[in-house]
Amino acid sequence: xxxxxARSKDLTRTRKSVTDSPPxxxxxxxxxxxxxxxxRYDSSGETVTxxxxxxxxxxxxxxxxxxxxxxxxxxxxxKDYKKMYEEALHENEKLKSRLNNSKQELTKLRSQxxxxxxxxxxxSERSSALESEKREKQALEKRVSDMEEEIKVLTELKSDxxxxxxxxxALIRVISKLSK
Length: 180
Hints:
This protein is mainly α. The protein has four helices and no strands.
């Protein structure tokens, strides 16, 4: 019995000596962890993760509810599991309906996107066709203007040719009168 008593005294001394020692200065990493712990709280004392965000996932809401239940009622061992099951089932049904709605909206948006891309493709095809038509039109206009220039030159040449014929005829008459 004396060994037990002596041993318990040693243990208490060891404990006292550990707790009586001055605290060590916090290391750099300890300070950072303390800063992280402090930065999780805002001025109201709530943690940043406790605040509701714009859109929270059902998982985080469920975890928050379970944490709230555990904090408020830790001593009760008889929980209403049937009620919790029904609530979870109800929430799952809500989530399934939201998922289905989201899927329908996604398919609708995809079809609209497909229509828009097809329309854009048709417009780009039209614009490329319009570009080629514009080039053809410009080429034809240039050709027409060249032909008009040629026609002007031809009409001038015809008029010159006619004048020269007339002059030639007059000269022939003069020569024929002179030779008589």
